[in-house]
Amino acid sequence: METRRTRTPIIAAGLVAALVLGFGLGAVAFTVLADDATTVVRQVTVSDPEPAAARDGLSIGQIYVGASKAVVEIAVTGGGSSFGDPATRAQGSGFVLDTKGHIVTNQHVVGGGSISVSFWNGTLLDARLVGSDPSTDLAVIKVDALASLLEPLPLGDSDRVAVGDAVLALGSPFGLEGTITSGIVSALHRQMTAPNDFTITDTIQTDAAINHGNSGGPLLDRRGRVIGVNAQIESDSGGSDGVGFAIPSNTVRSIARQLIESGEVRHAYLGITMIAIPGGIAITKVQSDTPAERAGLKAATSTRTIDGLERPTGGDVIVEFDGQKVTSAAALQSAVDARRPGDKVSITVVRNGKRRALEVTLEVRPARPS
User: What's the pLDDT tens digit per position in 36-83?
Assistant: First the structure.
């Protein structure tokens, strides 16, 4: 469920003083228990990124016909009303992930309570939570359904998405199930704040109309493939102002697979905050009792104004991660996210004008930033 926001939550990857690698930025983006909140769940196919059904030249109508049966409406209930009826805590959308009954949605949609799923033909089924990941705001639920109800959507490759690409959003805005809107990819590599205050990197910005109830619904390309899961909007009015954000499908593919296999996701963690500066990534803080501290990474001790901008000085500037040059906070975050706890990596820093390589053993990300 999207929340009305009064400040810009998205930070351009090249500028930010960001959480990195485990340290959150900004306020929690969602309020799951709000009675008036509507959320949507989307569904994705993990195994086959480009099945035969994904064809060039599809019209919006053709995509809708092919995809609408895979999109579901989700309701979460808990507690009760004064009349003894279950009280709806959240509503959203989702889409069928596979023929086994797995459905992908946002974590903030299904965070507590009894889950029910409504299909395109009105069939209403109970669902159970397979697993959720607040760090990426993704969850997988499962229904026991007839094979005729389970028509998975294919997952596309979000790394191949370009600014200006045409996209479609499906879901149930304001409870209006089966709604489709169109637009373009407005920007790439945006950042969002996850429900647990960590940062979700490389999100897709779109001007396709997204409202309360679209959270968790699929963002599709013009071949009917899922390239993102709609998760947040930036709006002063609380309605669609043409600025929506989706979690990229490559993230969805990885997280969904882990949730299905084990019910949880263990993210790699470094434990620093940072800011991009000319020449690399300056460390502004090293969290205590973290891999970064144990490896001897040093935070800035002071600041200096250069060309009218305040720059951190006296600490390490990260220039390479496992031999790959890094020039943005988002790139470094993504590099750590691609690893697993226990992985040993080499981080090259510039300290007092000299380059040195430090070996770091990544650990499990904590539940919330410290």
Answer: 333 333 333 344 444 333 345 699 999 999 999 999 999 999 755 444
Catalytic residue among 102, 116, 135, 137: 137
Q: Is 262 a catalytic residue?
A: no
pTM over 0.90, yes/no: no
* CATH number of the domain within which 349 lies: 2.30.42.10
Catalytic residue among 172, 215, 235, 240: 215
Instruction: Give catalytic status of residue 126 as yes or no.
Output: no
Q: Please write the tens of the pLDDT for every residue from 157-192.
A: 999 999 999 999 999 988 899 999 999 999 999 999
Q: Write down the pLDDT at residue 23.
A: 32
Tokens 């809708």 belong to which residue? 64
Domain C-terminal end among 234, 262, 290: 262
Residues of the chain with pLDDT under 50: 1-55, 81-83
155 by DSSP, 3-state: which? strand
Tally of domains within the chain = 2
CB hemisphere CA count around 270 (13 angstroms): 30
